Amino acid sequence: MNDPSILDQVIEQFTQVDGLRIMVHGGGNKASELSKRLGIQPKMVKGRRITDNSTLELVTMVYAGLVNKNLVARLQAKGSNAIGLSGADGNVIPAKKRPVKEIDYGFAGDLEDSAPVSETLEILLNSGLVPVCCPITHDGQGQLLNTNADTIASHLGVTLSRKFDVTLVYCLDKPGVMLNPEKSDSVVGQIDPAYYQELITNGVIVDGMIPKLDNAFAGLRLGISEIYLCDWQDITGSSGTKITLR
Amino acid sequence: MNDPSILDQVIEQFTQVDGLRIMVHGGGNKASELSKRLGIQPKMVKGRRITDNSTLELVTMVYAGLVNKNLVARLQAKGSNAIGLSGADGNVIPAKKRPVKEIDYGFAGDLEDSAPVSETLEILLNSGLVPVCCPITHDGQGQLLNTNADTIASHLGVTLSRKFDVTLVYCLDKPGVMLNPEKSDSVVGQIDPAYYQELITNGVIVDGMIPKLDNAFAGLRLGISEIYLCDWQDITGSSGTKITLR
Q1: SS3 for A150?
Q2: CATH number of the domain where residue B62 is located
């Protein structure tokens, strides 16, 4: 999403998706860039990233400001009536500060998938607006929190599935789950839980893809109708990997 | 607004204002602070501030991200269903890049007060949401623009006055227009255009207050019902200066 010409293609495709639409974005690269310029060292404890106060300010600026508003402006230019949101706006994504156990994650926000559908989101969607959600949430007591973008996407999918038929598409930097990362034609068309275990055992699915797929399976179990993993060249998901419960 | 305890008092008062409400904010101090940390020199031409690309990125981060989302979270904590907006969001404030004449102001956005009322703003207000607007606009072609916060406030007041009865309150760092800046009890209760000229001639109204008051008189002429200048200790305006056409 850092390459403007790719971004334009994604946005072009997004505007053509049928039905009500929500975009969820991150902004990790831009945040790392600004972090370096400001001399803010990423704070790590036992290999986990901690959201201290400086980091929270940084991601609030980058995710909710720079990235969100540029996406909104570009979507507007393509005829989508986009409206940028953090979880604090209209209280669309209430969160809880992660409890301090072995690790104090700082201002990390955890979500409750049993939360009711956001009334504000319903109003916006039913008014023809296109919500563009950044991964900043709040605790309802005035404190902003940092939440993983995949978690936001899945949470919105799950809560909205109580009132809407939801398709969730994760847009990756590769065309889906691949048997051989070197071969673009090795995309796995469909993965169910049994095949997922096999692919983990074989070492095909590793690292960051594991929480993403765990999230996906959980999302399906909690009510999302369809979930796809795909790249920016086809965000409909049809050429990517479909995640299914069986 | 940089002092959290003052900010809380302003927000407390704001939540108690009757009727539909919109907050418009700037964020100049925070922007200058970040500007220094990033080593971005304010670009000036003939004494006028220019919004170059780095400055636009900076103000988008600070105004639309850091300041806007913190205000929204604090308003939410006080029971106001706040929703943060730039002019790009829901296309609430379309702007035009200022034409290059003697000076190229860069990404400065000019507003058209004859623009129709924003449909999105109407939907939000009628849904009980409380818009919190930052001074970032867009040109509808994907370009974000930087617009003065006073101009935004007056523009929203004027356009909304076609459908609502609008009171506009400018919140200053002093209790209103003062005959003697050293004496807090020297606040002028009311100013009409004739008295305004007199106060300019006497040197009571100078510098940044002149464009603010010019804006205010223009706003009244274009349909705003009441305009006040006051400080944060009484944002109802009743202890401040009322601007009137006669």
Answers
A1: helix
A2: 3.40.1160.10
